[in-house]
Amino acid sequence: MRTIKLIAAGLSMVLLPLIVFYSLGGIQERMPERAPVVLDPQEICTERWTCHDPSALAALWEATARGERPLRIASYNVHKCTGMDFRRDPGRVAEVIRSLDADIISLQEVLSDPGETASAQMRTLAKKTGMYMAVAGHTKHKKDGRYGNALLSRFPISSVRLHDISLGSFEPRGIIDADIVVGGLTIRVLVTHLGLWPVERNRQVDRLLEILPERPGSPLIVMGDTNDWLPGSPALQRLRARLGEPVTMRTFPALFPVLPLDRIWIPPSESLRETLAHQASLPSRLARIASDHLPVVATVYLKAIAQGTASR
User: Fold this and answer.
1) pTM value?
2) Which end of the chain is more exposed for a tag (fewer CB within 10 A), N or C?
């Protein structure tokens, strides 16, 4: 027993300074002003995959724009398509995404190399799920490929801006800021993955809110992995004050979800029609092992968010 206590005391002496350092080490850091990188249209993946039926796709666009069907949005941290069983399998992640039937989906921790290589996960997932367009927002180069965020969409992505929200020596982070056109209506979609430590999340949320207009003139969606679960979190409180209540459920770890890390904001928040972490019977079993997070889904009618935006 005495040996165990000594070991515990030793670990505490090592870990506590590390926790303090990484929580406060960047407190004096100022996030530098960085102009967004505006992607060339050729950098947005627009290939018409063989699984597309152009006429069906056009009918879906029109039905969504007329409000005959809801817009379905999802956010999913795919953990480089590596599951809880430590097996990397983009195919089963694609199966989970297909089962969500999402029109727009944000991905975090995805590899996005070009071509047909194993590290071209974004391209593979877009192809296997029948998404019309895809855009990568990689934040770092890992030994197995470009790594970061991605956005998949059934609707045309007209323009994309990439924002670097990295702070000091913490892990690089970014925001995909895209305009998606649905039947003549432009929806601004922001995808991000915030930092692990409170000090960097606070700075990153400050920058995210600076990017957004006080009164958006068009519908807005903000989503991703916030890495934050505390109800009194200052970063989450500021996001709620501007964007309203988010869609969130316990999504991590996928096998036994405890922490609500992943969120979708669609202001005004009362326009949300449905929220769920993926719970359907067979896909749910797959979702619990395909990644270390569960996906979050929200549905909303375009008329509801367009009218809510106009009245703000």
Assistant:
1) 0.87
2) N
